[in-house]
Amino acid sequence: MMRDLSDRLGFFGDARLDEGGALLLEGMTREESCCLRRAADGERNKILRFNDLMDNDRVSKEAIIEGWSAATAVAAAGRDVLAIQDTSEVKFNRPAQRQSLGQVGYGNVRGVLLHAMIAVDADDGLLIGLVGGDVYTRKGKRTVDHTARSLDDKESRRWIETSEQAAEVLSEARRVTVVADRESDFYPNHVLTRQRGLHILSRAYRDRQLAGGGMLYGTIGGWPAVDRAALEIEAKPGRPARTAAVELRFGPVRLARPHKTEPDMPEALDAHVVEVREPTPPKGAKPLVWRLITDHCVFTKADAWRIVGWYKRRWLIEQLFRTMKSQGLRLEDSQVQHADRLIKLTAIAARAAVKVMQLVQARDGTYPVSARLVFGDDEIDALSAVAETRYKPRSQRQANPHPHGSLAWAAWIIARLGRWDGYARKPPGPVTMRHGLKKFESILIGWQTANTCIP
What we know:
CATH superfamily of the largest domain: Transposase Inhibitor Protein From Tn5, Chain A, domain 1
Order of helices and strands: HHHHHHEHEEEHEHEHEEEEHHHHHH
Structural class: alpha+beta
Largest sheet: 10 strands, mixed
Number of strands: 10
Helix content: 25-40%
CATH class of the largest domain: Alpha Beta
Number of helices: 16
CATH topology of the largest domain: Transposase Inhibitor Protein From Tn5, Chain A, domain 1
């Protein structure tokens, strides 16, 4: 396991640092915790090693983030990819942490910001992996008004820079559509994303002027509803999951360049807009309204519903942030104190969270993808040995139903190691996968030792 993980973190220029990074990533994934002591399983030597790793200048956040995409670039080749990006606040409340970190959110809340992009298969929703992003903390309050600063001096440039990373990492994909929520809806982002050969799908942030007169929201409001459907809405903090009865509208628009936007931007931009609106929400519920701006052509109801479906896949990046924090690795409970170490820890935690999500997603065999998306060759060989010696089926119902070498096949074995009984009536969850990964790590060490030729 260490060798494969080192390949994905191995930008430090030092084999010992690469191996230490792999150990830390594996420990965080196994324990579902960002506490260095727990990731080290209480072993003093590992704890010291992890601390040395976090303090080493050669272990930069840039190197860790660059390592995010090594497996993603290969797995995305030939696919129709949604490059979904968003920003999450990671809040730390210990006194020493608060002294070294900048403000996030409102009030006196301190922490770091994680901006991440994940690659997702547009057709089946497979989480392919991380693409790029940034982890940073703010340094004091800005004294110059936002509208008076250039694009290069604004925090919003992260949307554009991450799309630049996507253009390189996902260059072998069949098609790439950058998907994001309302904060990404600003004119230069639409222009520059398209100029890189990428498509864009963004939820409208505010009303805007159209070329030739009129406003966006008023124009959409004048379009007739062309279809109605029930739309399943995922739960989020403060909002339970529910079904919304929505109306569908769509049509072409021509966006006018805002007055305060950089003058080198084109005066107008052609786009299509898809709106889903809930005319009669349940009592006490906020009505659902999505106005989705895209450069994809939308000529039919099927085109429009496909755009809505792609936007719904944005839920996966929300799940990534939850896996890192409240529902998984508990990053915000870390006892690490200094800003530079917390930034590095956050970057490593993002990769660990993706691995947990990929195993859970693969458990039912819906996605026909190789185990090499998550595991290295040594690990796959060890999984084969485990399956042969420990999980020969006593009945057809307990046999591994997935093709050998697939990620679903590997997830089935990991789940069995985590004490899942093998019956489909109750699929394994994240806790079971964590227990299985922990047990597999011990097995792998013994397997590698037994299969190493010592002269």
